Request: fold
Amino acid sequence: MRAVSCFGFYSFIGLRARGSEIQLSSLKLINARMNATPYEQVLSGDIEKCNITPPETQYLFDFTKFDDVDNWQEQSDTVRDVGMSKAVLALHQNTAYRRAIFFALLNPQMNGAGFAGIRAKKTYNLTGYTKLQIKCRAQGQYNGFKVVLRHKGLNDEPNYSFEQYFQAPKEEFSIRDLPFSEFKAYYRGKRHNNSEPLDISQITSIGLQMYGGVYQPIKQKGPATLEIDWIRAV
Reply:
């Protein structure tokens, strides 16, 4: 029997989507074999006819289930001599729930320059998705944060970063939408219009920051927290 449905292929090859990787382990094994059986050749040919599309939702980090905070490192204004801020991402859990908490202590300069942040260097191909979503809640006097993306392995200065500001909810957990089209190029907090657009097919770093607001109408300082359930692409 030759006819096998796409659903049958998925069951056969064990398609598993997690993070940025789609693992087609059995199909790779078939393609690697020089002396494939006739049935394996049928599978290898027919799978190309199946319209495999990205899942509707891709979780970059799901702290409520399995992701930890080991891949996140601090990236605060202490990378410069005048910086005095601090940030850390910690996993918080008990028998009832599990989430990450971003703790920030922002000590900006007089003009508001300063940031307390964390980042994870991880590669994602987010082609087909239109925005990031973050389910979170802020506590403290200030609730202004931003997500910082970098692409193509250009993860450090003097390369631009792509940033989007958002106000985190203070009372109840809520989802904040961050369209990819609204991520703009910045260099040391200042907007730049002459940069290439963000390439979401080659995301290589994702970060969170509490910002001082040197170029923003609202200045921030002091301690703040951001509780995070998950970050996903939709």
Summary: The first helix runs from residue 6 to 13. The mean pLDDT is 83. Residues 112 and 217 are 10 Å apart (CA to CA).
